[in-house]
């Protein structure tokens, strides 16, 4: 009796590869050989993120039939080709610091108040189901975080997801958790959000807890005169479900400013974390922002802040502290 063929899709570096020449009797090792032929990533460098057996990562000797894979199953691959690893060992010349984002300043207020978009938010409040991972705490402010290019370089190649994690991520989240409940909001599917948080060790870290995740289904589309239709992350969805939060005590970090169109005063555009191989040893963005979060945690109303000038705010506070220390020493 011939074994049934299993069809699946491997997602790697933004592309999808259909795998169809494998059967239930083949092993994970055989699957890795086929993936190698399709992507160029050698089996020993492959990490198949959501290929699991009995709650654990599938082993090379496990047969495909044991994994209960459904037709069209999408498998996420982490790993690099040999030539890419060699190329990554040399920094590129003259890389410009270009930000591909929208100039939305003129349209922010108009869109924020538009009734048609407020109606969309109300529908999300009614229909979108939030699955709480950990209980919200009384008296906390709210920090909403993007993933890709904010906490994680999702385009670069690496043998392990940890190599693409933004430096000081766990230290940042540990510090923020003292004053803020933390929510992860990514413009991807919940499946990939959960997998990335698990891979980065965020979902199981002992020093902080994530309240819940929001995915692309919680977003809404808005029309702008300049840039036509774009997807945005309206914080009103959270505020409608959790009345203890509002523009007074919420801040959101994202590398794309247009995600703040419905709540421009609550968004802080973080510098995107890209080219992890070259920037891993010098990126300090999260450490600096952790200090900013600590400082503003004492502010009663975040609407009095200009998050675009957060670095100036931190510097000003430092100067003030130094002057105070100097005055105390004179006394």
UniProtKB/TrEMBL annotation:
<keyword id="KW-0460">Magnesium</keyword>
<dbReference type="InterPro" id="IPR029071">
    <property type="entry name" value="Ubiquitin-like_domsf"/>
</dbReference>
<dbReference type="Pfam" id="PF03031">
    <property type="entry name" value="NIF"/>
</dbReference>
<dbReference type="InterPro" id="IPR011943">
    <property type="entry name" value="HAD-SF_hydro_IIID"/>
</dbReference>
<dbReference type="InterPro" id="IPR051658">
    <property type="entry name" value="UBLCP1"/>
</dbReference>
<dbReference type="InterPro" id="IPR004274">
    <property type="entry name" value="FCP1_dom"/>
</dbReference>
<dbReference type="GO" id="GO:0046872">
    <property type="term" value="F:metal ion binding"/>
</dbReference>
<dbReference type="GO" id="GO:0090364">
    <property type="term" value="P:regulation of proteasome assembly"/>
</dbReference>
<keyword id="KW-0479">Metal-binding</keyword>
<dbReference type="InterPro" id="IPR000626">
    <property type="entry name" value="Ubiquitin-like_dom"/>
</dbReference>
<dbReference type="GO" id="GO:0005634">
    <property type="term" value="C:nucleus"/>
</dbReference>
<dbReference type="GO" id="GO:0004722">
    <property type="term" value="F:protein serine/threonine phosphatase activity"/>
</dbReference>
<feature type="domain" description="FCP1 homology">
    <location>
        <begin position="136"/>
        <end position="296"/>
    </location>
</feature>
<feature type="domain" description="Ubiquitin-like">
    <location>
        <begin position="6"/>
        <end position="84"/>
    </location>
</feature>
<keyword id="KW-0378">Hydrolase</keyword>
<dbReference type="InterPro" id="IPR036412">
    <property type="entry name" value="HAD-like_sf"/>
</dbReference>
<protein>
    <recommendedName>
        <fullName>Ubiquitin-like domain-containing CTD phosphatase 1</fullName>
        <ecNumber>3.1.3.16</ecNumber>
    </recommendedName>
</protein>
<dbReference type="InterPro" id="IPR023214">
    <property type="entry name" value="HAD_sf"/>
</dbReference>
<keyword id="KW-0904">Protein phosphatase</keyword>
<keyword id="KW-0539">Nucleus</keyword>
<dbReference type="Pfam" id="PF00240">
    <property type="entry name" value="ubiquitin"/>
</dbReference>
């Amino acid at each position: 009796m011939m074994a049934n063929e299993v069809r699946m899709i491997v997602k790697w570096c933004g592309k999808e590869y259909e795998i169809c020449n494998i059967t239930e009797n083949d092993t994970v090792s055989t699957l890795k050989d086929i993936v190698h032929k399709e992507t160029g990533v050698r089996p020993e460098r492959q990490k198949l993120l959501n290929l699991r057996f009995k709650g654990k990562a599938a082993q090379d000797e496990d047969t495909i039939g044991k994994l209960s894979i459904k037709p069209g199953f999408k498998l996420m691959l982490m790993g690099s080709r040999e030539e890419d690893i060699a190329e990554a060992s040399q920094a590129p010349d003259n890389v410009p610091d270009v930000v591909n984002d929208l100039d939305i300043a003129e349209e922010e207020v108009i869109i924020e108040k538009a009734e048609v978009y407020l109606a969309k938010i109300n529908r999300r409040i009614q229909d979108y189901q939030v699955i709480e991972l950990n209980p919200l705490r009384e008296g906390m402010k709210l920090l909403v975080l993007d993933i890709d290019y904010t906490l994680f370089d999702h385009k670069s190649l690496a043998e392990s997801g940890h190599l693409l994690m933004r430096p000081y991520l766990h230290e940042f989240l540990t510090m923020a958790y003292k004053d803020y409940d933390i929510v992860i909001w990514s413009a991807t599917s919940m499946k990939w959000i959960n997998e990335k948080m698990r891979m980065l060790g965020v979902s199981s870290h002992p020093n902080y807890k994530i309240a819940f995740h929001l995915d692309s289904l919680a977003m809404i589309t808005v029309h702008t005169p300049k840039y036509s239709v774009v997807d945005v992350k309206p914080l009103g969805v959270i505020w409608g479900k959790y009345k203890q939060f509002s523009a007074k005590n919420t801040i959101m970090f994202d590398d794309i400013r247009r995600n703040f169109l419905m709540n421009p005063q609550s968004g802080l555009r973080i510098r995107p974390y890209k080219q992890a191989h070259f920037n891993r040893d010098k990126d300090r963005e999260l450490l600096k922002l952790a200090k900013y979060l600590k400082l503003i945690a004492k502010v009663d109303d975040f609407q009095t802040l200009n998050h675009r000038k957060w670095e100036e705010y931190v510097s000003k506070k430092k100067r003030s502290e130094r002057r105070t220390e100097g005055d105390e020493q004179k006394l």
